[in-house]
Amino acid sequence: MLLLALALLAATPTKASAPLAPTTPPTRSWPTRDAEYDIPDFRFRSGATLSTLRIHYTTLGQPHRDASGAIDNAVMVLHGTGGTGRQFLSPQFADQLYGPGQPLDIRRYWIILPDNIGHGQSSKPSDGLRMTFPHYDYDDMVEAQYRLLTKGLGIAHARLIMGTSMGCMHAFVWGETHPDFARALMPLACEPVELAGLNRMWRQLLIDDIEADPAWQHGDYVGEPQQGLRAAESILFIAGAAPLNYQKLYPNRDAAAHFAEDRVAKALPQIDANDLIYQVDSSRSYDPWGRLETITAPMTWINSADDFINPRNLDYPQQAVRRMPHARFRLVPETADTHGHGTHTWAVNWTADLAELMARTER
User: Fold this and answer.
1) pLDDT at position 19, please?
2) What is the pLDDT of residue 363?
3) Where are the beta strands (DSSP E) in 68-195?
4) Residue 228: helix, strand or coil by DSSP?
5) Within 13 Å of residue 344, how many CA atoms lie on the same side as its CB?
6) Which is the most buried residue in 130, 191, 290, 328, by most CB within 10 A?
7) What is the CATH superfamily name and number for domain 32-360?
8) How many CA atoms lie within 13 A of 51 on its CB side?
9) What is the mean pLDDT of each run of 10 residues along the chain (363 residues)?
């Protein structure tokens, strides 16, 4: 899950919080459109409000309307903690999915890639409010996505909602909150349970590392709290690591040490400490476990065996699929070519599963 788009490609430099989103430059130029939707007087679950909540998004393809005039080909893909919608233009994702004849062929589907609250070019603490920005959670993020699709883009039903890491958890929230909205759900790299145990522990330690840095100044820092951020990035790096893959790519001590140090160093200038605290803490109220039976949309749920954040020996998937009438689960086996938590963004590992899900939900 996590977030963090720990999706990182093993051998590529990162763009934002260490293992956050994949950032390899696209190998081809996809025809994209960027836009923003402003939600007036957005009320958060905490009761706080923003006079304008800005949601930035990227699209590929064009909307198609059925005989009644309703858009029937919208696909929303949701990023992980620290990521952005544009991470899904990276070649290991886009080149497997958006081309002719591929599962999300943009000649057939309208792909919507939002930046969630607190991320990318959407409203976030670093815009100026810092720690007085409303403390959003996943329910707030899903509500903003819902407003974007329905009010902003005129979509009454989605063909597919797919998400990685944090976006994976959002897919479960969507399934419970708006059970008839999506014809299909594809969560990648998460569990449908409260974030507790080690998964909460490392997140809490990350936040504590930033807030313990004297330079943080309760969020009113003049310069980024480098000591706290370096510790936080180191935790993110470990959480998103892929043991077999890294052993294959960095088989000697010096190469391994240099790679880890370089990854953390390149990430630091691109992070805002308050943004990162909010991003990691937004999972605090997530807990869909008690209402899984309400998820009726067909689902294909994929985790990977080398995911530190969602360990393969947890038995939640086996329990959960028995409670969701149309859900299927598959665990991607660990190999030297899988990418730990970031396997969710290497589409070659699950393209066939997506194609099967789209086929079984075709009308």
Assistant:
1) 37
2) 83
3) 74-78, 110-114, 160-164, 185-188
4) helix
5) 42
6) 191
7) Alpha/Beta hydrolase fold, catalytic domain (3.40.50.1820)
8) 1
9) 39 35 58 98 98 98 98 98 97 97 98 98 98 98 98 98 98 98 98 97 98 98 98 96 96 97 96 98 98 98 97 96 97 97 97 98 92
Contacts 24+ apart (CB under 8 A), 291-294: 291/176, 292/176, 292/192, 292/320, 292/323, 292/324, 293/323, 293/324, 294/175, 294/176, 294/179
Matching residue, tokens 């180191």:
234
Strand pairing partners for 33? Answer: 59
Tell the residue number behind the tokens 């890639």, with chain if given: 113
pTM listed for this prediction:
0.93
Beta bridge partners of 124: none
Give the separation between CA 220 and CA 189, rounded to whole angstroms: 34
Residue 76, both tokens: 């929303």
CB 288 within 8 A of CB 319: no
Quote the CA–CA distance of 149 and 111 in Å, as a whole number: 12
> What is the per-residue pLDDT for 24?
45
Residues 6+ apart with CB under 8 A from 158: 74, 75, 76, 149, 181, 182, 183
* Alpha-carbon span 84 to 16, nearest angstrom: 10
